[in-house]
Amino acid sequence: MALPLDLWLIHPDSEMCDAFRDRFQQLPHVTVIESRFEDLPPHDCFVTAANSFGIMTAGIDAAVVRFHGEELMQRIQHRIMDLYLGEQPLGTSFLEPTGNPEFPYVAHSPTMRVPGSISGTDKVYAATWASLLAVYQHNVSHRGNESEQIKTVVFPAMGAGFGGVPYREVARQMAVAWQHYLDPPHRMDWDMVIRRQKAIAYDEGQQVVR
């Protein structure tokens, strides 16, 4: 069963925010914020739409490093070397403490190995799902310790920058991941798998993920 969580979706572009509102309108505990990272209020965890090597020198990753300091990037790179032998697989995510009690965690969640187009793939879904699982597993491990729980997790538009994924498709795949977090299966069978795969790969009857 999923643990309670508030999802914030941020982007400075009103078109992306409109796509978020449209795709998430039927889903609970979601706030869309038209904002830059630097202007966000305090929150528990920010998700970086990263690359597999923890090189956080462009886009929103660079803003995160400017805010928290280069030591954060160095720690993330050391964890990638220690945990993944230097290359974090897509579909994984880990939490790194920031040392700032108002913004205590960053989730490092690659959407791509190296910068380049991921349009037409399910990598936005995979990175969003991995991030939600990392937060879920953190909260399970701190069950009963309210002060250590993550209550607000903030996502940028995963894959919308260097990944080149259209805004509506970014919002669609992220919304599917959030729906799957809120409503996990109660048994594993092929009917469940087919429903899940169709939700990820199809939009309005058209296959959009190959």
3D structure, described in words:
The protein has 210 residues and is α/β, with parallel strands linked by helices. The chain has a single domain (6-207), classed as Leucine Aminopeptidase, subunit E, domain 1. The protein contains 6 helices and 8 strands. The chain has helices at residues 14-24, 59-68, 70-84, 123-141, 167-182, 190-201, and strands at residues 6-11, 30-34, 45-51, 94-97, 105-112, 152-155, 202-203, 206-207. Helix 1 (14-24) packs parallel to helix 5 and helix 4 (123-141) packs parallel to helix 5. The chain starts with 5 loop residues before the first strand and ends with a strand. InterPro entries: Macro_dom, Macro_dom-like, TFA_Chaperone. This is RNase III inhibitor. Residues 17-210 form the Macro domain.
Which spans have pLDDT < 50 for at least 5 consecutive residues? none
| Largest sheet entry | 6 strands, mixed
The secondary-structure element order is EHEEHHEEHEHHEE
Structural class: alpha/beta
Quickly give the CATH architecture.
3-Layer(aba) Sandwich
CATH fold assignment: Leucine Aminopeptidase, subunit E, domain 1
Cα-atom radius of gyration = 16 Å
- Specify the CATH homologous superfamily: Leucine Aminopeptidase, subunit E, domain 1
Helical proportion? Answer: 25-40%
Structural domain count: 1
InterPro entries: Macro_dom, Macro_dom-like, TFA_Chaperone
Pfam family, one: Macro
Protein name: RNase III inhibitor
Domain Macro: 17-210
